[in-house]
Amino acid sequence: MTDNKFSFVSIDELESEHIAAPQYSYWKSVFKKFFASKVTVFFLIVSVIVLVLAIVQPMMSGYSPSQHININVAGSKFNPPSMNEWFGTDSFGDSLFDQVWLGARTSLFIAFSATAITTVLGVIVGAFWGYLKSLDKIMLEIYNVIANVPFTLLVFVLMYILGRGTSQLIFSLSVTSWLNTAYFIRVQVMIIRDREYNLASRCLGTSTWNIVKNNVLPYLISVIVTSVSRDIPSFISLEVFLSYLGIGVGEKTASLGKTISDNTVYLAQSPHTFWIPVAVLAMITISLYVVGQNLADASDPKTHI
Question: What is the DSSP letter of 21?
């Protein structure tokens, strides 16, 4: 008698419905794509170091632009960079290292604040603007009027009216810039608003807010990150430009723009007081831009394999 070489197996209906496909996690794919580039990782490390120095260094040094601690010390002015003074000293004999990172903190605070206001208002208004056809005509008229006014000129006028100051500068930078973000989001929303799942949601009686929140905004993450990565370096550069012209932050407030402006007159006598803040500014804007752009690319599901 031969052994039975075959045996019956039970049928599992749930197992038969299983789709043999790899498990997909959106955020896991985002971080995998983001950290795959060594250049991105390098600039991310630079960005983190810059942010930490801008936050921690002013707290440790206790430096204040209104108190020039070494002004009466002979020979302490315009010292070149050394092991004791990494960035050297300025025209008052103060540490340029302390001055630069205090200024960087102010510039970053202004840029992040203006970007947050611009992004939040722009995304919310833009989402409804693109989804509600009844709102489109009104908002387009408002946008066409404001968009024809040069943004830099408008900021100039507002700063002359409001006066110098950090809060005034944040307001001037964000008062109309959110409208450009809203228009940018509106175009993206119009592309996806009439897709089948949104039509089905409307037929089922889903509210406009829930459709925008659950069906529209999640598909715009990469677009929003792109906008943020563009705005932060742009606002930093604009703050530096305005402070350089003397209409930015207050007289007793340190910023990168004000530091560069104050040391322009000493460019020939002591070039390090000018070029070091410029180099720090370039390092901040470039690193934040590269990190932001690569994060935006990684946030796009089309790039996930």
Answer: -
CATH number of the domain enclosing 44: 1.10.3720.10
Query: Do residues 279 and 46 touch, judged by C-beta distance below 8 A?
Result: no
Computed over every residue of the chain, the mean pLDDT equals 80
Sole residue written with tokens 């949601």:
201
* Residues contacting 24, CB < 8 A, separation 6+: 304
Please state the domain count of the chain: 1
pTM attached to this predicted model: 0.78
**261 belongs to a structural domain:** yes
Q: Examine residue 4 and state whether it is found in any structural domain, yes or no.
A: no
Helix residue ranges, H only, 24-150: 26-34, 38-61, 96-131, 133-147
Look up the domain containing 280 and give its range: 35-55+95-303
pLDDT at 22: 61
Of the two residues 13 and 124, the one the predictor is more confident about is 124
Per-residue tokens: 81: 């960079």
| 206 conformational bin, left if phi > 0, alpha if psi -120 to 50, beta if neither | beta
Residue 72 confidence class, pLDDT cut points 50, 70, 90: very low
> Residue 235 domain-assigned?
yes
CA distances from 202 to 195, 205, 212 (A): 11, 5, 11
DSSP-derived letter for residue 80 is P
Q: What pLDDT is recorded for position 14?
A: 61
Q: Are 79 and 88 in contact (CB under 8 A)?
A: yes
| pLDDT at site 45 | 93
Q: Please identify which residue in the block is written with the tokens 């989001």.
A: 185
φ, ψ for residue 182, nearest 5 deg: -60, -40
Contact 276, 121 (CB under 8 A): no
Residue 49 predicted with pLDDT over 60: yes
| 160 within a domain of the structure (yes/no) | yes
